[in-house]
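Writing this down once: the sequence line spells out the residues, with the fold written below as integer tokens. This is how one looks:
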Amino acid sequence: GSGALGLEALSRGARSADLVERNRQAAAVVRRNVAAVTKASGAASAKVQEATVRAFLGRASGSYDLVFTDPPYDIDDEAMDGDLAALAPLLSDDAVVVVERARRSPTPDFTAAGLRVFREKTYGDTTLWWAEPDRDEPASAAVQPETESQSR
């Protein structure tokens, strides 16, 4: 994509961001956007990772507090679930993971990745899920999906 979500997080106080993009041309766009934000603010600490998500997660270290994942809408369910499972060990205890997919796509298998969904919202043809590491705490009330007209 463009790196917009990661760059927005940096503009709102995130200390660093890893922007993962496998497509060479799209990664070049992300690099230009990082350079422009860095020039304008001087504060951006973003690294563009030109790799598949799985390859990046296989070599990543440390922990992540906030993850935005916006895979191609045509990603197959097995790949999506595998990416979430590879991500889970890298999450801090209070991390939030936001997943965007087409509304017609099935819900990713958050439970198998050790994640618990605490919010779901649909905007037109897009569904977003907010999840956090499930630390075996009592489950709260079931998540009720929201539609675009219910809240903004």
